[in-house]
Design a protein that fits this description.
With 655 residues, the chain is an alpha/beta fold. It has 24 helices and 23 strands. Among the domains are: 222 residues, Alpha-Beta Barrel (7-stranded beta/alpha barrel), CATH 3.20.110; 79 residues; 142 residues, Sandwich (Immunoglobulin-like), CATH 2.60.40. The C terminus is likely disordered.
């Protein structure tokens, strides 16, 4: 008889709500509610299966806010009739409304065609169809049982605004039902309140245990060491669950499976029955007993305390990244046979833990066939069952790491990460010095979320990296503002060295005044100029604090913002060169005829004649000791200028 599968599906999104207005910046909570959040609960209940659904409390709070009327920016723009969209809203749709796994578009010829030319769409019928499909594609297997949703899918194109509004209203109704589905679900566990990496809250310096190659200088990140925050994130996690779902889960999935000896002491002290992480964490721990994951482990000296469960890494990843390519019956057969082969027919149970929302984007039927067959197999149980199996061994000292590589590199291995932790350390110390006022804690807790760090550094890319970066800084800034203290100026600039991926897309034209002063209102239609990438040395070499790029009067305009009000000892404009792909270089200190350079204490404004709407350029200047710095280090900054019909005019300053 094959072993039972102790299945945990992790439901998680960071808090996307603006700390000032409460409006969600991004739509992922609403969209996942129409797919994985609903489908997993309904399909499991229909089959009589009871896997564990793991919830992040900040996700519960957002679902409650959406249920009570909150509206994200994507939904607001989707509800605008296509004929009435402003230029900025049309540009937002072109840039942001093609999202999700490509498999979600393949079933629709219309969505596939729209996605291929999204940047060029201008006809209201095209824009409206994209408004519809950017939401319709997220409707999961349960949602598509509704005749109206099925009719929209079959129609494929030529939607009316009335159909669009009805679709969005249907989504809202689904969002409102998710919390009740989870309230009734038999097996729940919880993650920390806002999904922080607990070992790093205890002490960022502990990352060196699993990342011995980290440099001595972490840009001040090592100043963050607040174990009380780790404890509070766990205490409030169960409080929020009880408040919203009426339950206090006994089990814990720590954010990203990240644990350390210090975190385990807190978890055990708080009385969690079990905690789960990755099997590689067991392999790297000092232990008594052979490596087996078909039962729980205990910490030596605390045998009566919290039990540790270790997931099968390979089988978890097969569900998340492989089985969407297989027929459902073959995938389930392989999973059960592989569990027996890897752990033995006599293994009582095999823990499998994975993301409970994102995998189903890649499955052509939103995972319905696979999940239905798996839940009907009779093999699936919750993690609470696994925790009651006889223990397999004792751990003398637990390894510090996570479920990804058994380390913490994604959240503390790059200069971008260190800068973010440094910003957080300053805010946390100010919070402490002010006596830990309650009003500032929610902002601090949200700023500690792992998600902001996930999109920093080189590991992962997303079209909305700029929004994640900005929202992290907004949460940190809200801590300072709530304390009644000045918000540090460096929070105005992106943390990520290339926070805006892909082409830079100005929304309009500009007419800059060339008087050496910074007139921000004139640059309202410009795109932000991303800061250079690089390690700690590159940060020391940074010669500008940002800027902007736009078009106007037949020119490509660049604005380079200068640090220290222009009092730096070696101003960047003295050595700055603008490279153009396929065109001549512009030496800013000696511009060629037709180019414009205006140098002032706050900024340098450069105008380059251009006839193309897609220029590619790079900046080059002399760094410390004369070493040449290029931004970007490889390739080009791509600029996509708006067409005259779509450009938003920025008023000229009056003479």
């Amino acid at each position: 008889m094959p072993p039972r599968i102790a299945l945990l599906l992790h439901m998680h999104q960071p808090d996307y709500r603006d700390p000032d207005t409460g409006r969600p910046w991004m739509p992922w909570v609403r969209l996942h509610a129409c797919r994985g959040y609903t489908d997993v609960a309904v399909l499991a209940a229909e089959a009589g299966a009871a896997p564990t659904i793991n919830v992040v409390p900040s996700l519960l709070q957002q679902l409650a806010a959406l249920r009570d009327g909150a509206m994200d920016e994507w939904e607001r723009i989707a509800r605008v009739p296509a004929e009435d969209l402003s230029a900025a809203e049309r540009d937002f749709i072109r840039q942001r409304f093609v999202h999700g796994h490509p498999a979600m578009r393949r079933a629709s010829p219309r969505y596939t065609a729209l996605a291929a030319r999204a940047r060029e769409l201008s006809d209201p019928a095209d824009l409206r169809d994209l408004q519809v499909w950017s939401n319709l594609a997220w409707m999961g297997s349960v949602a598509r049982r509704d005749p109206f949703i099925a009719e929209l899918v079959a129609q494929d194109e030529g939607f009316s605004h009335r159909q669009l509004v009805r679709l969005l209203d249907h989504q809202r109704a689904m969002v409102g039902r998710v919390l009740e589905l989870w309230r009734q679900f038999p097996s729940l566990s919880v993650s920390p309140l806002c999904h922080p990496i607990l070992p790093l809250l205890v002490d960022v310096g502990h990352a060196r245990r699993c990342l011995p190659d980290l440099p001595d200088d972490l840009l001040g990140a090592e100043r963050f060491a607040w174990p009380d925050d780790a404890r509070r994130q766990l205490v409030e996690a169960r409080n929020v669950c009880e408040e919203i779902l009426g339950r206090r889960p006994a089990g814990l999935w720590p954010s990203e499976g990240a644990l350390s000896p210090e975190v385990m002491e807190i978890v055990d002290d708080l009385g969690f029955a079990w905690v789960a992480t990755d099997e590689e964490m067991l392999r790297r721990s000092d232990r008594v007993g052979e490596v087996r994951i078909d039962g729980p482990w205990v910490i030596e000296g605390a045998e009566a305390g919290t039990r540790l469960l270790f997931r099968d890494h390979e089988l978890s990843d097969r569900i998340g990244f492989l089985y969407h390519q297989w027929p459902g019956d073959a995938a389930v057969d392989d999973l059960l046979a592989s569990a027996a082969h890897r752990h033995g027919d006599d293994a009582p149970i095999v823990p499998i833990v994975l993301d409970g929302e994102n995998p189903w984007e890649a499955y052509p039927d939103a995972g319905e066939d696979f999940l239905r067959r798996l839940f009907a197999s009779g093999a699936v149980v919750g993690m609470d069952v696994a925790a009651r199996v006889p223990t397999r061994g004792r751990i003398r000292r637990l390894h510090t790491g996570s479920w990804i590589g058994a380390d913490l590199r994604i959240w503390a291995g790059d200069a971008d990460d260190w800068l973010a932790w440094s910003l957080l350390a300053d805010a946390r110390q100010a919070f402490e010095d002010a006596g830990r006022p309650e009003a500032a804690w929610p902002h601090l807790a949200n700023a500690e979320s792992s998600d902001w760090f996930w999109w920093l550094g080189p590991e992962f890319q997303t079209e909305v990296a700029d929004l994640f970066d900005a929202l992290f800084r907004a949460h940190v800034a809200a801590v300072w503002a709530t304390l009644g203290l000045p918000v540090p100026l460096r929070l105005r600039q992106p943390v990520g060295r290339e926070a805006r991926p892909g082409p830079l897309r100005p929304a309009g034209v500009v007419h800059p005044t060339l008087d050496g002063r910074l007139h921000l209102s004139e640059w309202a239609g410009a795109a932000p100029l991303p800061l250079p990438r690089g390690g700690s040395m590159a940060r020391a070499e940074r010669r500008f604090f940002g800027g902007a790029v736009a078009a106007g009067d037949g020119m490509l305009w660049l604005r380079i913002d200068r640090p220290d009000g222009g009092r730096e000892p070696d101003p960047i404009h003295r050595s700055l060169v603008i490279e153009q792909e396929g065109g001549p270089e512009l030496v800013v200190a000696d511009p060629w005829p037709g180019a414009v350079v205006s140098v002032g204490p706050r900024c340098v404004v450069i105008g380059i004649p251009t006839e193309t709407t897609r220029p590619r350029l790079a900046l080059r200047w002399a760094g410390p000791g004369g070493a040449e710095v290029r931004h970007p280090a490889r390739g080009w900054l791509e600029v996509e200028l708006p067409s005259p019909a779509d450009a938003v005019a920025t008023p000229r300053r009056p003479d």
